[in-house]
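If you are new to this repository, start here. Below is one unmodified record pulled from the training split, so you can see the exact layout before writing a loader.
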Amino acid sequence: MFNQMVFGGGGSRCTWQIGFLLSLSRDLPVRPEVVCAASGGSMVAALMLTDRCREGINYFHSVCKKNERNVYWNNSFRKEPVFPQFDIYRKGVHELFHDSLESLRQSADLRIAVTYPPEWLPVPLALTLGLAIFYSNKHIFRDLHPNTALNLGFRQLFHPVSNCKDGSELEQLILSSCCAPPISPRLSLYGAEVLDGALVGNAPVAGLDAIKGRVLILDTGRFPHLPNSFSVHKKEQVWTYVQPSRPLPIGMWNFSNPCALRRTLKIGLADGRAFVDVLLSGKERLVQI
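And here is the target side for that same chain:
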């Protein structure tokens, strides 16, 4: 039904996407030709394409049970990290995808978004500016596809997984799409310093092909002024957006609350079932945005 898919970022909130996909795949074939993903959505996209969604949720549930806090200030003068999220994520990426490159190549054209800072701005200042723009768009302007960061010189580029030489390069690409200092260390990809792939806009639609068909866009943000699911005509394409039906109970960088993780998964499961019902009933909502 959908020949292209888009996965927005959101850290732990991307658990909602996993629940949604588990419900959707029970009733409808999910076989996109092109998949564009950013930040945490890149991990979920890879989980879907390798049929490891349940493995992914089990991994993060187990590590969240063991991780007591999201910030360890006592580590400020030690070798251990103050923020545990990156190590948790890095180990998960390796465990889940170190042997998945060939499987991903054969399943679909997965394109992972990475943001490059403006040339005129030092990276630390670029990150601060990018975050300010990201949150103002999310909470004040509520734009689905903002252009502010792009107009200031930030660049969102898409790297095809098929171009990765080996599993290590794949892991580095997924991690680079989630680069958000100081939660993560500063990272470089192919010799250039990078930032979170969702920094310029959470739903990375710029990587889509201009081919006829349907596009499913899964965003973890909540836009109260818009329906839970709706479709928009884009030339020869129909873009179908789906968002969580209610505010998610987990924060983007909350890696210490397994109960909230499970509740987020359940919301995704319920939203997936509701979306299937809408599709099968032929009652999709067409809007103009």
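Two things worth knowing about this chain: The first strand starts at residue 4 and ends at 7. The mean pLDDT is 93.
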